[in-house]
Amino acid sequence: MSVLLAELLGTMIIVLFGDAVVANVVLNKTKGQNSGWIVITTAWAIGVALAVYIFGPISGGHFNPAVTLALASIGKFPWADVPAYIIFQVAGGFIGAVVVWLHYLPHWNVTEDKDAKLAVFCTGPAIRDYKNNFLSEFIATFILLFAILGLGTANMVQGFGPATVGILIFGLGLAFGGTTGYAMNPARDLGPRIAHFVLPILGKRDSDWAYSWIPVLGPICGGVAAALFFSLIF
Question: Which of 4, 77, 134, 139 could join 71 in a cystine, given CB atoms 3.0 to 4.6 angstroms apart?
């Protein structure tokens, strides 16, 4: 149970930092409104590094179903543990999003942009083209997993350290985030998307379930492909 709680809390921390920085940038009357993409990518990177520092030694620091499935696909993680890991990761994403909603509670009512409210919780495409949106998530997550394995670790802790994981996330966001918002993590997207769906947010739009499969299947396919490719080569 401590391992599963570590996955839940680690994913929660990532979403806390990530969704909160988006709220700070896009919601009305915040101190950070319109501060831009660099601010967003920086906070996401810090959130990931912090989660790995704290909880990586306990659970391996997956915090991402794409990582869990990728490692299982090459025999570096037991398949029997995969369902529980994923459930707790998604739950962590949901809880993190709820806390962000509470933190920015006064700002929802003064923000008219329904798309901006949704963007706080989950990703969406800059140009809606499902084939290319899927490809974007596939490529970004492929690079993420290939880099993790290439830097000599199966659990995001040994070999290169949590700080380097944060730098990797920062670089991926800067380079590949402009198309779909670089979910690269089904729990990071699905948990908060469910939170958006159930929370009483004044003037919100639908939760864009038509797009929701992209940040789930794209990262999973990209991560598993990267792990298999890395295993084939090395």
Answer: 77
